[in-house]
Structure formats: structure tokens, C-alpha cells
Amino acid sequence: MKTYALKESEIQRDWYVVDAAGQTLGRLATQIATLLRGKHKPTFSTHLDNGDFVVVVNAGQIKVTGNKLEDKKYYRYSGYPGGLRETSLRDMLAQHPERVITAAVKGMLPDNRMGHQLMGKLKVYKTATHPHSAQNPKVWKTEEKQQ
Is residue 31 part of a domain? Predict the structure, then answer.
């Protein structure tokens, strides 16, 4: 038996819509990262971008567990002395909920050229409306346990 090697020309990319309403941030981010990398496909290969496009809607309605709304911080640095700024998760969700999901997914992807290419296939929107209906995206059912 020979090992099958996927070629760049044989890659088939789909579009998926993921509804983030009521989902836990970390568990949702792992499923999105899996879709972006293509690990859900039988033809997964570590060195090729075999993943699909992912459209996340209702980013402003995610939930977190514990005290993360106050304890989790996001940092940015201007490059100047005294230019380190920190924002809590509560403030970030109020102002830019798209960045919360983007940062969580980015941390679960490889930090190389392919990881940056994968992030280009992630589209995150605060509300339920998105401009990608022409691609006929499929609805992805998340695997979160209902309690």
C-alpha cells in the first residue's frame, strides 16, 4: 500500500457559519481552529492549508466561565515608554467582541506563515448578519454540551 499525499490542486474548501451565541469562548475557539486547519477532513496534512472558511456570527453573545470577565486581560504596547495598555475581557466584549474570538483562535493556530494564512479565512461578526451569503455557507453545529 502506498501513502496518499494530498496535492494543492485537490483541495476542496467549504464555507461554514458558526453561531457563537451562548457558547463558551475556549471551546468554541478550538472548534473554529479545527475547521480552519482542516483537521476534520480525512485528507488532513500538516504542511498544507487544507482548511475551510469560517464565518462566526453573534460574537457579542459568547460566555465565559469563572471570573474571566474581570481577570482576563488583553495587552497592547505602543512601543514607547509607558505605552503598555491593558483591557479587561468585559471591556473588550463591550467594544470589540470580534477581537476576543480572533485572539482566542489565533492562539490555537501555528505561529508561522501558514497560521497567518489560516487567519485570513476567519470572518467574525458581532451580530447575526454577514455579507457572505453568496458563498452558500453551511451551518456548523458546535459540539458544546447542553447543561
Answer: yes
Percent of the chain with pLDDT over 90: 86
Does residue 100 register a pLDDT over 70? yes
* Total structural domains within the chain: 1
DSSP annotation of 123: E
Q: 4 falls in which pLDDT band (50, 70, 90)?
A: confident
**SS3 (DSSP) at 147:** coil
Domain hosting 34: range is 13-139
Q: Which amino acid is at 111?
A: D
For the chain, what percentages of helix, strand and coil (3-state, to nearest 5) are there?
35, 20, 50
* Residue 94 belongs to domain with CATH number: 3.90.1180.10
Domain presence at residue 84: yes
d(CA 119, CA 102): 8
Distance, in Å, from the CA atom of 18 to the CA atom of 22, rounded to the nearest integer, reads 12
Task: List, as one string, the DSSP characters of 65-80.
Answer: -TTHHHH-EEEEE-SS
Q: From CA 93, how far away is CA 88, in angstroms rounded? A: 9
Residue 8, pLDDT score: 87
What mean pLDDT is predicted for residues 114-132? Answer: 96
